[in-house]
Inverse folding.
């Protein structure tokens, strides 16, 4: 009986040690993650009305660590576009993020969506890893550490009113054509949906 109790106690101590190590690792990852990173995150926006994808040229992601929660925080995610636009050449979101057993989970506040990052390497200069795609697959990415821009100068979320004003009647004609082609489109939101996908 004493042998069984001793064995159980040793197993419990090993499990606790593993838990503490995992938490320590998550905290270390969060500290290294803190800052602003730039590169291609394979972000696209899908417009239901047009049945069209628009690919981001690059993204900037800022991770700000919560000093009281250690392995989590908030920040900013901005996707930039060349040759497209709706009065602005970007869509910006506030984010909340956490590191849980090595997996980085990001919540886009304005969009109400999530994405996961795993299998990454991280140092003071580069952030390489795999981001979860909309089809369930994973895409490798490479970001570099950059200086933070002035986050106070951005408009947050997708502003359809600004988009409509910018494109004026051309956009209205396009909307009517899309509705005629696909009646279900009239039920869809006019805001594009962020999708992570491999480039064709």
């Amino acid at each position: 009986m004493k042998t069984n109790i001793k064995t159980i106690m040793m197993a419990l101590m090993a499990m606790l040690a593993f838990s503490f190590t995992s938490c320590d690792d998550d905290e270390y990852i969060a500290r290294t993650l803190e800052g602003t990173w730039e590169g291609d995150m394979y972000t696209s926006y899908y417009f239901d009305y047009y049945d069209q994808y628009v690919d981001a040229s690059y993204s900037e992601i800022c991770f700000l660590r919560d000093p009281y929660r250690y392995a989590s925080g908030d920040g900013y995610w901005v996707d930039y576009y060349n040759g497209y636009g709706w009065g602005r050449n970007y869509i910006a979101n506030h984010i909340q993020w956490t590191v849980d057993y090595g997996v980085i989970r990001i919540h886009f506040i304005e969009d109400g969506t999530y994405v996961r990052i795993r299998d990454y390497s991280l140092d003071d200069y580069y952030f390489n890893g795999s981001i979860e795609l909309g089809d369930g697959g994973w895409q490798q990415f490479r970001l570099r550490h950059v200086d933070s821009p002035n986050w106070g100068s951005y408009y947050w979320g997708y502003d359809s009113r600004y988009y409509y004003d910018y494109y004026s009647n051309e956009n209205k004609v396009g909307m009517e054509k899309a509705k005629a082609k696909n009646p279900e489109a009239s039920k869809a939101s006019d805001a594009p949906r962020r999708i992570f996908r491999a480039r064709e």
In short: Residues 90 and 105 are 22 Å apart (CA to CA). The mean pLDDT is 77. Helices lie at 2-33, 160-181. The two ends are 64 Å apart (CA to CA).
